[in-house]
């Protein structure tokens, strides 16, 4: 019992303690050559973090960022799942589209930033585009892989029972690949959260990316570091929720 508790809680705490120690050592090493580095030390960051959480502004930025993540992820699911099913079920479509998808997948979403602003203007629209573009590929590929792994006898049985194409998709394929879709969603969340901060530097007036730029311009470096820590914590929570949803689905399915 004690060993399990140490593995579950003790080891992560040890890892965090080591990270804090390395953080402090890094700041100490930079202090002589870069005096401003002291503002990035753990203690000033912790004080700024506490003060930041007590303010109302940061929560507005967090809510708007999470809203953008939800919209981008939702659009990626709406686009990626049908395309993934189509890729797996149609050899001709797969042969024509997959090389293009693989090419687009290898383009950094951030490289589209100038074009997104030029076409969509400033504001939320280019941010939604960049987040959707970043998130759609893991969802598409995991959906296609899930359909390819389905037992062909399920589809054969459905056809033998005169099931329509839509019934096969909605009652056989989608329930059978939900775990794969959730895996794609989890990967997409990790990618979308990384793209979010630079995407929110595209002329929006609120959001975590905007807040990072604002703290830099105000020379509030401890607050900047606190915002970086907050972004990491929020990302960890999102990934945890995605893992929990995946594990819960597998438990229900079994």
Automatic annotation (TrEMBL):
Occurrences of domain ABC transmembrane type-1 (ranges): 62-242
Subcellular location: Cell membrane
PROSITE patterns: ABC_TM1
Family, similarity comment: Belongs to the binding-protein-dependent transport system permease family.
Pfam short name (any one): BPD_transp_1
Residue intervals passing through the bilayer: 69-88, 100-121, 127-148, 168-185, 191-212, 224-242
Protein name stated in the entry: ABC transporter permease
InterPro entries found in the cross-reference section: MetI-like (IPR000515), MetI-like_sf (IPR035906)
Membrane-topology descriptor: Multi-pass membrane protein
GO BP annotations listed: alkanesulfonate transmembrane transport; cellular response to sulfur starvation
Keywords: Cell membrane, Membrane, Transmembrane, Transmembrane helix, Transport
Organism: Janthinobacterium svalbardensis
Upper taxonomic lineage: Bacteria, Pseudomonadati, Pseudomonadota, Betaproteobacteria, Burkholderiales
Entries under Gene3D superfamilies matching the protein: MetI-like (1.10.3720.10)
Entry GO terms, CC: plasma membrane
């Amino acid at each position: 019992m004690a060993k399990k508790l140490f593995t579950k809680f003790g080891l992560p705490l040890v890892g965090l303690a080591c990270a804090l120690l390395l953080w402090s050592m890094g700041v100490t090493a930079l202090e002589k050559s870069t005096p401003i580095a002291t503002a990035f030390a753990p203690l000033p960051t912790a004080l700024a973090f506490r003060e930041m959480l007590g303010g109302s502004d940061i929560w507005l930025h967090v809510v708007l960022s999470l809203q953008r993540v939800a919209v981008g992820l939702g659009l990626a699911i709406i686009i990626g799942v049908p395309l993934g099913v189509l890729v797996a079920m149609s050899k001709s479509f797969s042969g024509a589209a997959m090389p293009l998808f693989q090419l687009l997948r290898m383009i950094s979403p951030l490289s589209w930033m100038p074009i997104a602003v030029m076409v969509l203007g400033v504001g939320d629209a280019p941010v939604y585009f960049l987040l959707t573009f970043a998130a759609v590929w893991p969802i598409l590929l995991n959906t296609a892989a899930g359909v390819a792994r389905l037992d062909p006898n399920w589809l054969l049985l459905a056809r033998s029972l005169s099931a329509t194409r839509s019934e096969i998709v909605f009652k056989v394929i989608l329930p059978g690949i939900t775990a794969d879709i959730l895996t794609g969603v989890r990967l997409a969340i990790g990618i979308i959260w990384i793209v979010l901060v630079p995407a929110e530097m595209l002329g929006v007036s609120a959001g975590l990316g905007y807040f990072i730029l604002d703290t830099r311009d105000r020379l509030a470096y401890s607050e900047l570091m606190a915002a970086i820590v907050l972004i990491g914590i929020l990302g960890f929570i999102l990934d945890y929720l995605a893992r929990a949803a995946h594990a819960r689905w597998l438990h229900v399915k079994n």
